[in-house]
Fold:
Amino acid sequence: MTTDRKLVLGMGLIDGYGGLHGAWRAPHVDPGTYTDVDATVRHARAAERGKFAFLFTPDFPAVRGDVEHSTINNLMDPLIQLTAVARETTNIGFVATGSTTFQEPFNTARQFKALDVLSHGRAGWNAVTTSDPAVAANYGRPVAERAERYQRAHEAIQIVQALWGSWQEDAWIKDQAANRFIDPTRLQPVNLQGQYVASRGPWRSHRRNRVSPSSSRPAAPARTSCRSRAATRAASSPRCGRSRRRAPSASSCGTRHAKPAATPTRSSTSQAS
Ligand SMILES: Cc1cc2nc3c(=O)[nH]c(=O)nc-3n(C[C@H](O)[C@H](O)[C@H](O)COP(=O)(O)O)c2cc1C
Structure:
């Protein structure tokens, strides 16, 4: 019996030793490669040669575990690390972890978009509802209740996707002779106001390759992220949070989670001229 089902392979990009605890003590491992970006690039290139679809970078920005005997994993900022890797690879996709609990959606939209642009459309977002007390302590906050973290995630994902969709395909005129750089009517403000996060928008740069980074979300109801995009400019958006190119999407949660209480609403703030 034949089947057209395909296995999509992703590889965790952890540190210069690999992903396994104890890998730093393996034979032939140079202990000096811990933060060595050249080692990371070698791993990424090997994955690319091996037909892996994407590299996954988790993110736990805290010192945890038995650090006397084990390495601290995920020590690099995932987006900065992948920026270096993107310039040394050509096809492999990137799924970087970004917290909806501790990051502002505008920063998330900006940073992932930058990775997507400079990697020619290979970026994806593993949106996580960080609940680790050690991470929370590094941001000077207690761990919020689960319902609050998921409501914030729901709002943040909608805002990020709305920002990515707020620059229409044909906004970037770049007509030197006519002295017209951008068609301002093709930039749509976002004006989303949630309970925990908000953004006015619009986004600040053109949509590389006419797509936006992919995103995965922690169990947001299916309707929610697309509603936000639809309200901004669905007609011209190719798809909601999905890339036509290689950028993969990763699932950050396999189970159902608390349904967010409310969708962010439009504020009356208008776009700046
Ligand atoms: C595939 C997968 C990858 C995850 N990666 C991260 C990560 O890199 N960083 C992180 O803080 N949490 C990560 N998480 C944790 C979740 O975002 C979530 O916080 C955790 O599952 C606890 O569940 P809760 O937030 O519903 O309480 C990951 C979860 C899954 C299933």
